[in-house]
Amino acid sequence: MKFQLHIIALSALMGLTIYSTPSQAQWKPAPVSLKTKWAAQVSPQNSLPDYPRPQMVRSKWQSLNGLWSFGLNHFGSMFAPGDMNGQILVPFPYESSLSGIGQPSPVTQKLWYKRTFTIPKAWKSQSVLLHFGAVNYESTVTLNGRALGSHKGGFDSFDFDITSQLRDGENELVVSVLNPIKTDVADAQVVGKQRTKPGGIFYTGATGIWQSVWLEPVPVAHIDSLKITPDVDTSQLRLTVNSSGNAPISVSALDGGKTIASVKGTANTELIIPIKNAKLWSPDSPTLYDLKVTLGTGKNADSVNSYFAMRKISLGKDDQGRTRIFLNNKFVFQVGALDQGYWPDGIWTAPTDDALKYDIQIAKTLGWNMLRKHAKVEPARWYYWTDKLGMLVWQDMPQMYGGPQGALSDAAKNQFDTEWRTILSQKHNSPSIVVWTTFNEGWGQHDTPRVVAYTKALDPSRLVNNASGWTDQNVGDIHDTHAYPGPWSNEPEATRAAVNGEFGGITMSVPDHRWQNNAGVMGYGATLKSGWLATKRYQNLLETAYKLKETRGTSAIVYTQITDVEQEINGLLTYDRAVMKPDVKIIAAANRGEFLPLPPNPNPELVPTSDDEASNWKYTTDKPADDWFGAAFNDTDWKTGAAPFGHDAGGIRTQWTTSDIWIRRTFDLPTQIPAKLNLLVKHDEDAEIYVNGVLAGTATGYTGDYVPISMSDAARATLKPGQNTLAVHVHQTTGGQGIDVGIAAAK
Fold this sequence. Notes:
Blueprint: H1 2-14, E1 62-63, E2 66-74, E3 86-90, E4 109-117, E5 127-132, E6 135-136, E7 138-143, E8 146-152, E9 158-161, E10 171-178, E11 194-195, E12 203-204, E13 208-209, E14 213-218, E15 223-231, E16 236-243, E17 248-255, E18 258-266, E19 271-274, E20 289-295, E21 302-308, E22 313-317, E23 323-327, E24 330-331, E25 334-339, H2 353-365, E26 370-373, H3 380-389, E27 392-396, H4 410-426, E28 433-437, H5 448-458, E29 463-468, E30 478-483, E31 497-504, E32 507-508, E33 527-528, H6 531-551, E34 554-560, H7 584-591, E35 616-620, E36 639-642, E37 645-647, E38 654-655, E39 660-669, E40 677-684, E41 686-691, E42 694-699, E43 707-710, H8 713-718, E44 722-731, E45 737-745
Parallel strand pairs: 11-12, 25-26, 25-34, 26-27, 27-28, 28-29, 29-30, 30-31, 31-34, 32-33, 37-38
Antiparallel strand pairs: 1-14, 2-3, 2-4, 4-10, 5-9, 5-14, 6-13, 7-8, 7-10, 15-16, 16-19, 17-18, 17-20, 20-21, 22-23, 23-24, 35-36, 35-39, 37-45, 39-44, 40-43, 40-45, 41-42, 41-44
Helix pairs in contact: 2-3, 6-7
């Protein structure tokens, strides 16, 4: 790949950006509660200057990233405002800090962009293409007052041939954008996770240009796109060069700069390139070959540089006859993380290419071999880094929602199909993508058998996951289960593998590294106070995962998630990527199926829960005497059992299936007892907790994890060095049930 990287670096140097007024010095990031270290590297002179399309590289190009004028007016307006509002830094979304705007989504207004550029004289004899990486959501583009065209869709790229509308000197480019963020009407858009009122598992909108804008000169007859498909079983690469005509094609495949195969043919016809003794791509050995493609001959020829990998993804049977996901004809347990691709300073847009690369590097460091790209499609450079660094990718189609009953109009369904078809085509060449996920849970789910069938028809070289979690429709290659904290999966079927597409969600708050320090948090259990606890919890989850791999035939698991996202704080990394919460060495080992001993807990529980090691309690399911919770009560006739008690829940040691249970235990305390204490309670459902015969706390409803409850002052006053008594009553009405209690110092 050395020559490929050299070309990209050379292209970046040639990508000169010409800015119009006003002065660049007027730009500054908008105030934001949290930012990454890479934000300081962003400026109008250095706004994502890297070559945007690593799998189809030409040597000449010009970036249009940088300062543009922007304005807002009525959503139905056909013309830009006479006086623009100010400057915006492209390609960062309007709502982001790095755009310089940082305001709420303008869902009822039209956003306008305007700038000028000039074309180098050396380009005069060629056609010129204008490329947009992605614009969210409905955009119209004009050049020098004449319409180039419109585009609908927030996650796919598009371009225009602008040759006939160019003029000498300055050219004026205008882009208008509508992003209504519609989620509750039949004509809803493909929105992903963006919302007008962020909260819970939904986040800030990302309106407007959010990927690179750029120009490149091409011959009149030029390469439009490549379709690259490896065939490991036959040691061949299948390549189609798409172009407007049927010009001759010459192709060379290279390994380390040395040509290993050459073929000739014509455009729009599949070419077969033999790759002898192929080095197979995998997360452990992400071998990439270089590809040089030329259309035509002589001075009017068009040449691009690309790359490919020899990689196969398929279903197969293990030695027990269970359906598994195979990589290169072997079962590889895929251990991954949910990756939503949000940034506190750029929203959908990473501040720099190094930032984009970092998340993939840290995932590798943490021992994951797969990322599930959730509800978002990334710029081409993200997939370049997953290809180069060796990270398997499960790619979601971002969600489209319907009205109150989930109804979608035919027009909305057609738009969904159009956007998904384009995404499938534009990301086809990335060897790291191994699974297409058509729907997440039931969000906007419609016509699932049909959507899966056309996905398989468009790309038979990959697996298709019909629905990640909850709403499986018995089609596709995968049965995907969500379980929090989990993990859990169904058993494999004759023609479908079993996976856990979301689990975990370990919640840990890191002060001063939160999106909003005083805001509520979103997680899937108790908010942990230390990295040691997060490490322990993650290790326990992965021990369960590896048991599922063996006992149930699970092929893959996906932890939620790699980073915090806004108010959702269940990442192993904080949202600003500044703090790694757990112990990296122990996490990486757990992801490989190795479970290292934990160091001593720096903040041990005074009365440990049974989450790790079982504690014995006395218990009864028959209503006891009224003084059952008193310290002097005689419980010798009660049964003895290990906590947690319960039914139909993870980690249960003693079965409890009646409506009520009463449990008691004694515990010893040291001479020094903290002034403030928390009860650590995992309950389903309502619990009353007594210490030394005094009510210490109550809990209603249920939790999936241990929740801290402040111990009452009256109960705290009864505690003494030596032996004390803990007594609990739980009442349960429906569903699963469970109880366990511990005590820890409050902070």
